[in-house]
């Protein structure tokens, strides 16, 4: 019995440097070639048509799989006036929005902001936030750093064959490392 524990311990010690080395190799063997994503197109998934919190269209411009999880960039075409996200937290990602078209209302912690075309907002990780589309139509660039699981969240929401309940939405958020902590932001 002691011999088995000794051998298991020895194997663990022997593989630890290999695991660490493989992480270094992965970082330095990253793709060294750029790529172009055309206007109006999404990388990998094409147009992702969301269900649930809103019915917007999302295009992945830079996937987390392109950057080893370091960064993700999305373009969202907003078609859901008066709708947005529930108040939620990303535990490990900062989020930046750049408004390309339209008007939005954001809440970050206790602060509320009105954003219009050309405005940007930074949402720090571990701070509750939400947004709602004010204008009839809109478009935003959304940047996540690191990428986290937001891309998977969008793909999951789009794959639903029904309008999800609040409980189902909360579970999908949780499955993708986000926590719903309050209702959607209302337009005043």
From TrEMBL:
InterPro entries: Cupin_2, QDO-like, RmlC-like_jellyroll, RmlC_Cupin_sf. SUPFAM superfamilies: RmlC-like cupins. Residues 80-143 form the Cupin type-2 domain. Gene3D superfamilies: Jelly Rolls (2.60.120.10). Coiled coil: none annotated. This is Cupin domain-containing protein. It comes from Algoriphagus aquimarinus.
